[in-house]
Design brief:
Order of helices and strands: HHEHEEEEHEHEHEHEHHEHEH
Bound molecules: magnesium ion
Structural class: alpha/beta
Number of domains: 1
Number of strands: 11
Strand order of the largest sheet: 1-2-6-7-8-9-10-11
CATH topology: TIM Barrel
Helix content: 25-40%
Distance between the termini: 45 Å
Length: 259
């Protein structure tokens, strides 16, 4: 009887753990622009994605812009030299070399690299384009390219552009879209149909209640771009689901990810 009482008390204690702690998975690591600091890589290079996969990062982030003739390419800035990517045909950009010697990757090449493995998710940032019409068109082109790839189930979308986020949700309500711009409350993010927020750590410092508010709504919280240990620890303590970082191995060491 005493044993039974002990078991009942233990079960009650377990159930009393707040849901936000009991159900919340550990913080996971997203390599910002791939793991580009590792040898032989450059930001947004194929090699940086391969490095993120090699270290077992949960995700590898990369930036996508669409050329004038509708080819999605992996690049952060909207220009390469003097040429704005959205105004330039792909044939005029294809010979551009990254700092590690790779040619400018296309989204198709990137997805091909990410296919065939399931450990590292592909965190696709849709960059802003110059008009809402171009943004909707770019979102459709990107979504079509992803849907044609066997890597499609591994892709999550992030964007500062509400226009692009809304277009992805409209065309593929099952897509996981995270909003970057920091100006929507968790309730507004939920109402828009997104999977979560992906905000700068300074925004989350100003709105500490957003961690719990987001989780209570079933949203996830990603935070960028965090490269220092104290901020990483603060975010882990606040229950961030993901941290996007240029230092994925440092974050892994804080989270005790097994080798
Ligand atoms: Mg990015």
């Amino acid at each position: 009887m005493k044993l039974l009482t002990t078991m009942i008390l233990a079960a009650a204690a377990f159930c009393a753990i707040p849901a936000s702690h009991a159900s919340q998975p550990a913080t996971r690591v997203i390599a910002h622009r791939g793991y580009w600091k590792a040898e032989g890589a450059a930001q947004n290079s194929i090699r940086a994605l391969q490095n993120a996969i090699r270290i077992g990062a949960y995700g590898s982030e990369f930036d996508v812009l669409v050329t004038a003739d509708g080819v999605p390419v992996i690049h952060h800035d909207d220009r390469i030299g003097e040429r704005r990517i959205e105004d330039t045909p792909y044939r005029e950009l294809r010979s551009h070399r990254l700092s590690n010697g790779e040619k400018l990757p296309t989204l198709r090449q990137y997805l091909k690299t990410g296919a065939g493995q399931r450990d590292t998710r592909l965190i696709l940032e849709m960059k802003a384009h110059s008009t809402p019409e171009k943004e909707r068109q770019a979102a459709r082109i990107i979504l079509d390219e992803v849907r044609r790839s066997p890597a499609a189930p591994s892709v999550d979308y992030i964007t500062f552009s509400k226009v692009m986020a809304d277009e992805i949700v409209r065309l593929d309500p099952a897509a996981r879209v995270y909003y970057l711009n920091g100006d929507l409350s968790p309730a507004a993010v939920k109402a828009a149909g997104y999977a979560g927020l992906d905000y700068h750590h300074g925004i989350m410092r100003q709105h500490e209640t957003w961690f719990n508010e987001a989780h209570a709504l079933g949203l996830e919280v990603n935070v960028w771009t965090v490269n220092d240990e104290p901020t990483m620890r603060w975010l882990i303590d606040h229950g961030a689901d993901y941290i996007t970082t240029d230092e994925p191995e440092l974050l892994q060491s804080l989270l005790n990810v097994p080798e």
